[in-house]
Amino acid sequence: MTEENKNIQSDVIDLRIIVNNIWKRKRLFFKVLPIVFILSCLFIVSFPRYYTTDVKLAPEVDNNTTGGTLTSLASSFGIDLGQIQTTDAISPLLYPDLMDDNGFVASLFKITVKSADGEINTNYHDYLAKHQAFPWWDYPIEWIRQLLPKAEQGGSASGYDPYYLSRREDGLMNLARDNILFSVDKKTDVITISVTAQDALISKTLADSVTKRLQWFITDYRTNKARIDYEYYKQLTYDAKQEYEKARQRYASSSDANTKISLRSVELKLEDMENDMQLKFNAYTALSTQLHAAHAKVQERTPAFTILKGAAVPIKPTGPKRMIFVLAMLIFASIGVVIYIIKDDILASLKK
After folding, report:
1. 306-342, pLDDT tens digit by residue?
2. Which of 152, 287, 308, 336 could form a cystine bridge with 237, CB 3.0-4.6 A?
3. Which tens digit of pLDDT belongs to each residue from 165-181?
4. What element of type H or E holds 197?
5. How far is Cα 254 from Cα 250, in angstroms, rounded to an integer?
6. Nearest to 15 by CA among 26, 7, 23, 6
7. How far is Cα of residue 21 from the mean position of the Cα atoms in its chain?
8. pLDDT in tens, 108-145
9. Which residues 6+ apart lie within 8 Å of 44 measured at CB?
10. Are 333 and 36 in contact (CB under 8 A)?
11. Would you say the C-alpha torsion 285, 288, 294, 300 has a positive or negative sign?
């Protein structure tokens, strides 16, 4: 037992020896940590600050619910008819996928943005292309790229086509997708729009504008069928009114021309014209009623939106977290120095 205890004790690393070795080489910390601190500061300061603005939007969801006896009967079988949503092809859960469409992102490039200091006043496309700050090492890399032969591919010669982009324009599209994010709460259908920019006021302006564009898109989609029906009935009503006006004018002219004529054939002709005018008037009246109903349908299909959290100018930058980064680098450097100091003791213990 004594021999076994000695073997066990020889396999255990004495923490006092390790602490003593670290203390003896404490000067290594005073050499490494200042260097890590300076390099970390130089690295993290090179990254530009950015600001994030969030907007929470609750769209109206049309539910095809059925009340009364049918709801009670379905509940007895464990079916909640209230959860059966509308037959719309685009549900709120699919709204984040809009940023995958180049056409929708290209519509955001037209938004006018202005910086807090007033030095930048342009559209979002030019802001991304000409007014972005980058780490200092990106500038020599970009300068070298400018010297290399360009192999630019894509891009429509006839004009800006969001679905036929050059490599540079595709990069701006991806940058916009990184800065503008949509997310939807599956339980409440609340849409969160998060916009990031290198200026606080631009971040807020973009958040407001993107929210309006999303509202417009949802409204346009939800009312598309109703608006088509309304325009269809509007044209039919207009044509029916024109036909009625012509029939009325023909009847009035014939009636005035044959006032003193009492021939039976003339009377029958005037009667036929009056019947034709009445039929056209009835058709015009019926189409006019359908036109008003179609207009009401457009209003019914127009969704209502509730802003749960409006866009506000952020006071503090979202990132980068410079102090946290520097502190983390110092901690990692300290751990590395400790491992470097005690590596010989660890290797010796492993060999035993």
Report:
1. 899 999 999 999 989 999 999 999 999 999 998 888 8
2. 287
3. 888 899 999 999 999 99
4. strand 191-197
5. 6
6. 23
7. 57
8. 999 999 999 989 999 999 999 999 998 888 878 777 87
9. 320, 322, 325, 326
10. yes
11. negative
Q: What is the pTM of this model?
A: 0.73
One-letter amino acid of 99: M
DSSP 350: H
C-alpha–C-alpha distance, residues 291 and 293, integer Å: 5
Long-range own/partner contacts, residues 77-83 (CB < 8 A, 24 or more apart): none
The full DSSP string for 51-102 is EEEEEEEEE---B----THHHHHHHHTT--GGG-B---SS-GGGGGGGGG-H
Q: What is the DSSP letter of 49?
A: P
d(CA 189, CA 170): 31
What does 289-324 look like in DSSP terms, one character per residue? HHHHHHHHHHHHHSPPEEEEE-----SS--B--HHH
Joined together, the tokens standing for residue 160 give 């800006």
Report how far apart the first and last C-alpha atoms of the chain are (Å, whole number): 19
What would the two tokens of residue 113 be? 């943005």
